[in-house]
TrEMBL record:
Residues 41-115 form the Cytochrome c domain. This is Cytochrome c551. One of its GO terms (molecular function) is iron ion binding. Heme c binds at C54, C57, H58, M93. The keyword Transport applies. Keywords: Electron transport, Heme, Iron, Metal-binding, Transport. The keyword Aminoacyl-tRNA synthetase does not apply. Coiled coil: none annotated.
Length: 115
């Protein structure tokens, strides 16, 4: 062990600040098609999208029904991946094409927080 001479403290700071703001949206951010960087999740909207598009198969409280439970989906998939699943379907789940890209992204971000 030869550590003298190093005045080094190796500071590995992994700063993972995820600020998910709850902006009460009168501001609609326009035309952010694919970027994954700023997801501001509007939970109320996400829940509404969930209820009209997913609830029938994934349960009222994400507990699962015909489809699997999504209560911990965020520890399995990233928001991006969930978006892809919504967009393209997975296994026996059909693509959910009635969500527009913004809605899909918001919903995916919301689900990604379910851990
Ligand atoms: C017609 C029924 C149906 C609808 C509607 C539906 N799903 Fe699914 N979903 C499924 C089934 C079935 C699976 C399992 C697919 C497989 O693995 O074969 C699944 C799987 C998933 C998975 C992967 C879960 C895992 O643990 O692997 C996610 C995420 C998901 N659905 C999200 C959604 C979202 C979000 C919506 C609404 C936008 C939605 N689903 C709407 C039936 C549905």
């Amino acid at each position: 062990m030869n550590r003298s001479g190093w005045k080094g403290v190796v500071l590995t700071s992994v700063v993972a600040i995820t600020v998910v703001g709850c902006s009460q949206g009168s501001q609609t951010d326009s035309s952010q098609g694919e970027s994954n960087e700023t997801i501001t999740v509007d939970a109320a909207k996400a829940e509404a999208s969930y209820q009209s598009n997913c609830m029938g198969c994934h349960g009222q409280d994400l507990e699962g029904a015909q489809g699997p439970s999504l209560q911990k989906v965020g520890s399995k998939y990233s928001a991006k991946k969930i978006e892809t699943i919504i967009q393209g379907g997975i296994g026996s789940m059909p693509a959910q094409v009635s969500l527009d890209p913004k809605e899909r992204k918001n919903l995916a971000g919301w689900l990604a927080e379910k851990k």
